[in-house]
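Regression test attached.
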Amino acid sequence: MSLNTTWFVVLAFTLAVYAVLDGFDLGIGAVHLLLGRTREERARLIDSIGPVWNGNEVWLIVAGSSMIVAFPNLYATSFSGFYLALMLVLWLLLLRGLGIEFRHQIHHPMWEHAWDVVFSLASVLLALLFGVALGNVLRGVPFDAAGEFQGTFAVLLNPFSILGGLLSVVTLGWHGACWAALKTEGPLQLRARRFAAALWIPAVALLVAMVGASFVTRPDFAHNFMRYPPLLLGPAAAIAALIGNRSAVRRGEDRRAFIASSAYVASVLASVTAGLYPMLLPAAVGNPGPGLDIYNAAAPAGSLRVALIAYLIGLSIVSVYMVTVYRVWRGKAGQVYR
Amino acid sequence: MSDAVVAARWQFAFTIMFHYLFPVLTMGLGVLIAVLKTLELRSGDPLYGTAARFWARIFAITFATGVVTGIPMEFQFGTNWAQFSRYAGPVVGQTLFMEGVFAFFAESSLLGVFLFGESRVGRRAHWLSAVGVALGAVLSGFFIVATNAWMQHPVGYQAVGDHVELTSLWGLLSNPYARWQYPHVLSGAMVTGSMVMAGTGAFYLLARRHEDAGRVFVRVGVIAGVVFSVLTLFPTGAFHGENVTRFQPAKMAAMEGIFKTQAGAPLAIIGMPDRERQELMDPIFVPGVLSYLAYGNFSARVTGLNDIPADQQPPVEIVYYTYHIMVGLGTMFIAVLAVAAFFLWRGSLFERRGILWTLMLAMPFPYIANEAGWVVAEVGRQPWTVYGLQRVAVASSTNVTTGMTYFTLLGFMGLYLVVGLLYLLLFARIVNEGPR
């Protein structure tokens, strides 16, 4: 496997881990106000993600910095091209983080409620924007002659990517409900299971619509799968995870249900990136530009090699204490924030 | 310089200066909390545990605010400085990336255990989490300073076409520029953490509340403060200054207001740079000292701005004043903390209300000194983003307009005003509730 391809896999892996891990805490935010009915229930939902959300978000930062070091051209072109949308993401990440961390600083219903609303709205909008972004990457962007683009909201908010946004909100909400069922007890847990079961249906419906729309928008999307059939394991794993989640939620096996929803999120992202390869940011159909791929966006080989070694060493250390930290917090979420 | 570049500079300057208010405290405080946890473990005195828990609450809100204001910093390299990212990404990306995988993961995962896990893990494991958080914060700072040092003094690279390539990771990490810059930055952060701790303790003693904890805060803060305020000046500040003279003569000339190249250059204690007449107005000079500080020789020649092409000079006034503010404040910190440490040693500090008042009111000033130091570093590098390689004028994004950047700058200003007020509110509340 060439260095460039390896870095494509590394970036896809980092984004998939981010989607699974920050996905469930964004999902908790998406269903927060509906799932948690009382002050105590909402506090418990925040407790369930309190000790881990920050570490989860580091995966986004690592994904960003892997882009700088491995695909600087992708980083520069996409971040400046999606300027306003990204700034919105930054402000929402800021408000959401403060919502989690400031909420418990003052024990007053008004203060807590205000932060609950901020946390929940910011989470929904972030899930939506991440889905819209993924939709636009699939669809391609309108490059100009200089190889740049201006992603105004008029460009970004097209029906296809809005469909992607809705899919993202519903899927992460379902993923978050699975996490909540795993980490809570009593009526809140029963309600979380009902949410997980109920959200499964629109999540599947939106996925089917999105897959159909993808083939219409980007007819060449199946190309990689035809040429290299083992890649079909990705979509197959996604379907298996969906079915596995359904039966686990029915039987109240929360652990299995959450593992299945995590596997689903990861395999959907794996399938999307497998279909995109070797493109990183394609040009919209009918657009003259070549788009960015793993070759014309990449850093020189020397930089790629050194960063890959750093990544492998870093991640082997990270995996040890990530597992340790999650083990410290295993079991039901107790009262974390005082 | 086009309006779009100016707008992007304003936005970066505003967001980074606001952001740095938080990590400058967490880097210093993280180490001091680990010290308190160690004292608790060794002495068995629960007072140290109470003190550590109190500062952990301050650490938690500071860290959270630092994280949420820090993400925009990394993103801005792409959003507003796309040409810089394309040009320098293969090199600066390494250190930014290593910060994430080697430092930030550790810091944020272990912080959860440290803040909320005291009842779940053993005493030793909790102590270890405190040490891990401190190490993560300090290591994080190293990778950021290494990134900045490369922009000040590029090493370990080769230029290939329209970008640079990394040729030596070790060269990048052992940049001679970072060798004293990093200890200097870290020492400045330690002074901040120490003075905030001592100032808060002084407040408790003056207000006659939580006096047991107040005495611990003052003792730990003053001892660490006097050590690190001296280290900030010597050796870290002095040797870093030598490096600036060696690698960036234009920055040094602006810092010291040296308009004309001269042998036996004097050190200006005060004075106002006058660019039209190319001299310092109303100066107080100490003859020969600048030559000595820069070269270890009272009659050495120091390059003045007249020997630097006009299009390679930084704006003199900003660099000159911020440098003098930093050094002036740093000197006063040494004086105040040395007096406090003397009376601590004599055993009468806790009754000396004048010194306690000074310690309390001094709390904001280390922030000003640290920010001023960074302004010297960054404005002093102008007109370059990467010294000698890429000019600021060609480093920004070409597809982001002036209007877009001012729109988001105003957004940041509004949001950060709210964040700053909320942070102060919560800080004051935690201090008011006191250690428990």
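Expected vs. actual: identical. Chain A has a mean pLDDT of 93.
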